[in-house]
């Protein structure tokens, strides 16, 4: 396909498949989004095109820059001195998760009428996936602690009403930026997909074959439109 999909549409996800991609994009069978607004979270492994898609969505949808949360992990690492050598630690992933939640809360406190309430490059789920996919001893305990955090539990109702856009790894885009962890991107997405299902968070999934940024934006726009129509 490689970004040449004609008449792109949102296809239902079979929940038992744990998000397996059968076309360029998949979507849950229902669209539990708010009538007044929707938050968009773009997620996936490193070097899958998240920031590029977020920038393009912000421009195409006219999203206020104050409502666009750019990846917080790098800021946290700069401010705290964490490096990818600390990826397996609870302290680093907790710091990233709480920073993400704080950024989301700041946006949610802004006056809002309708439209896109928030666009975020990653979510508070991502550091939990890093904890869960760690090869270091104690990974399951770190995952349990992060999942049980009160602030995370409080944001889950919003996440369940939001549009999560899960990007598949694109092989030729995989690079070492010297900063983030070199996770196995396919394993990362496998765990992320399962976690989204377990938490009841709906998502759409854009496959590796859809690389063209214009097509990616159009796919998301179509799903937003489909959600709005369904809720009328």
From TrEMBL:
SUPFAM superfamilies, alphabetically?
P-loop containing nucleoside triphosphate hydrolases (SSF52540)
Q: Where is this region: Disordered?
A: 1-29
The organism's superkingdom is given as Eukaryota
Q: Which residues form the NadR/Ttd14 AAA domain?
A: 40-206
Q: What is this protein called?
A: NadR/Ttd14 AAA domain-containing protein
């Amino acid at each position: 396909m490689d970004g040449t999909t004609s008449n792109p549409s949102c296809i239902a996800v079979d929940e038992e498949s744990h998000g397996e991609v059968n076309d360029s994009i998949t979507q849950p069978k229902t669209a539990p989004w708010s009538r007044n607004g929707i938050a968009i979270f773009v997620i996936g492994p490193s070097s899958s095109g998240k920031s590029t898609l977020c920038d393009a969505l912000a421009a195409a949808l006219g999203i206020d820059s104050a409502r666009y949360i750019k990846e917080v992990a790098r800021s946290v690492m700069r401010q705290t001195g964490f490096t990818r050598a600390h990826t397996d630690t609870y302290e680093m992933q907790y710091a990233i998760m709480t920073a993400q939640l704080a950024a989301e809360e700041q946006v949610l406190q802004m006056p809002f009428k309708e439209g896109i309430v928030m666009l975020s490059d990653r979510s508070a789920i991502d550091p939990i996936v890093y904890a869960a996919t760690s090869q270091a001893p104690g990974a399951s305990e770190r995952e349990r602690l992060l999942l049980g955090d009160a602030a995370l539990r409080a944001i889950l109702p919003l996440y369940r009403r939001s549009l999560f856009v899960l990007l598949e790894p694109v092989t030729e885009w995989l690079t070492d930026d010297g900063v983030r962890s070199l996770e196995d991107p396919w394993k990362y997405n496998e765990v992320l997909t399962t976690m989204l299902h377990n938490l009841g968070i709906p998502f759409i999934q854009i496959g590796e074959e859809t690389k063209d940024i214009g097509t990616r934006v159009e796919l998301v726009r179509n799903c937003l439109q489909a959600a709005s129509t369904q809720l009328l």
